[in-house]
Fold:
Amino acid sequence: MLTSQRKALILDRLRRDGQVIAKALADDLSLSEDTIRRDLREMAAEKLLKRVHGGALPLSPDLPDFSARQAVSSEEKRRLGAFAAGMIKSGQTAFLDGGTTNAEIARRLPKDLAVTIVTHSPTITGELEHHPVAEVILIGGKLYKHSMVATGAAAMAAIASIRADIFFLGVTAIHPAHGFSTGDFEEAAIKRHIAQCSAETYVLATAEKLDAASPCQILPIKGVSGLIVPSDIPEERLAPYRNAGVPIFLA
Structure:
């Protein structure tokens, strides 16, 4: 088997299983464990995976600060935001998580839409300043500056008193085996709590968030009502998520 074929197989295993065990893969392919370990080292240097003792895990995405992410307003994010905004109906209570993609939802809400928007992100509330008929509820607490959202016990208690019709969850990574994840333990707990207090939960995902895993799981892959992705993502990348039973919406 050629080196390129082995590396393609390793990436397929990572997408499918969420991990690669060097010894098990070597046994499956009737190769030496040293050969597989060498492949994993090279792939880690190429930033294709994360090396760990005995094997490899999917790469954790970089976490630039909020200001850096805010400066990138891609056409992908705008399409996702417009699609999600169209899902919010008059009279509903919608919870918007923090993040630059969810900010696009707020920007694209019709100005005459009578809804209640709940958020724990002060930056999201700023986007809703010129929506005269929208009720806006800002959840307070300890500010997690990286994502500009409130966390902690006070935020948890306030969220528990609200039942949202729809929640748009922000994540840093999505994987068929590892589910939806983010880089901070406290933020993951808040996101999970909001989902538990909401009738439906949807995730807007740009292409780079797929097939990756961050340290802190928010929800398993079947824990959301749907995944909203750009329409130009190849079907072969979406197949593992469809096979896992996640409804996918193309924006």
Summary: Residues 3-17 form the longest helix (15 residues).
